[in-house]
Amino acid sequence: MTHRQEASPHGQVTSPLGQVTAMALDPAYARAAARSAARSADRPAAWGPASHRSVRRRLLLPLVLLLVGLLTAVSLQAAAQSAPARERLRDRLGAAYEIRSEQRDDLAGGVREQRSVTADMLTRRRLADEAWATATEQIGTLAAPAGLAPARGPGVRVTLVDPPTGPASDAGNPRPLAQGPNSRLADHDLADMVNLLWSTGAEAVAVNGVRLTALSAVRAAGDAILVGLIPVEAPYVIEAIGAPGTIVGRVASASVTVRLRTRVGAPPDAVTVARLDEVTVPAAPGPDLRYARGSGS
After folding, report:
1. Which of 221, 200, 223, 203 is nearest to 211 (CA)?
2. Which residues, in sequence order, are bridge partners of residue 193?
3. For range 255-267, the mean pLDDT
4. Residue 209 and residue 275: Cα distance in Å, rounded?
């Protein structure tokens, strides 16, 4: 088989295999490569491998590394120098912590002690308040019987009347030796009637509005009769709180009543007893109590 030979553009004759080898690169790739080579030839010198920028970079890199090394060395030296100071600071802080811990424990113990004292004081105050409330209740209950407060309830009224004229039968004497005509009532006559009312179960007694208590008495001061320290005059009105039926019956038949009604010169109404559905007896005057005091020696 005979192969046809053709001449190359330069006058050389190539075979078909040589043409295939020569035309293996696509013409489009060849043109693109030619354009890229032309652009590379037109670039400034700064973009070349020997440009000034590359030189600056090569010079700056050692300087940066040198600075980093210096900083690292300085940091290591400072850390080495500050290590003893840190140890001393750590020791001082540890000692201060121990002192503060001991102080905190002491304060906590003091707080617990004060809480115990406070709880004890609160308990004592509660007990004192309860005792005060009980005493106040007892005072309120006993105030009326003791004469410290007014009393009210059913009772009687006994009225003792003197003759229209005449001297006191035995002024200032505990018991009369004799009674003259038209003699007046004495302090002991009034006291006997008051004692009779107490014996019949009277709870509160007043003479002419003056309350009688365990600290007061009926006595004479010259021609006057005193209830406690207050003078009273006839007619003597005695009011008593108690069971009216019992008191009226016993007063009417008592020897004191018979004696006062039958004494010489006694008026017809010498002794009258009235039953009352409600009697109000005032409180007694405040007692003048005196207390002993230590001399301080």
Report:
1. 203
2. none
3. 88
4. 18
**How far apart, in whole angstroms, are the C-alpha atoms of residue 225 and residue 219?**
6
117 pLDDT above the threshold of 80: yes
Q: Are 22 and 14 in contact (CB under 8 A)?
A: yes
Q: Is the pLDDT of residue 271 over 70?
A: yes
Tokens 């293996």, residue located: 24
**pLDDT tops 60 at residue 150:** yes
Q: Are residues 196 and 249 in contact, defined by beta-carbon separation less than 8 angstroms?
A: no
- Placement of tokens 């078909």 in the chain: 16
CA dist 159 and 235 (Å) reads 7
Nearest by Cα to 200 from 227, 233, 231, 238: 238
Q: Give the span between the Cα atoms of 167 and 265, in whole angstroms.
A: 11
Q: Which residue has the higher pLDDT, 6 or 84?
A: 84
Contact 209, 203 (CB under 8 A): no
Please tell me the predicted confidence (pLDDT) of residue 37: 65
Asked if 186 contacts 176 with a C-beta cutoff of 8 angstroms, the reply is yes
Q: Please determine, for residue 57, whether its predicted confidence score (pLDDT) is greater than 90.
A: no
Nearest to 230 by CA among 209, 249, 256: 209
> What is the average pLDDT across 231-258?
92
DSSP E strand stretches across the chain: 6-7, 13-14, 151-160, 204-207, 210-211, 218-221, 224-227, 230-232, 236-241, 271-281
Each as own residue / partner, the long-range contacts of residues 286-289 (CB below 8 Å, 24 or more positions apart, any chain) are 287/213, 287/215
Contact assessment for residue 157 and residue 269, using Cβ atoms and an 8 Å cutoff: no
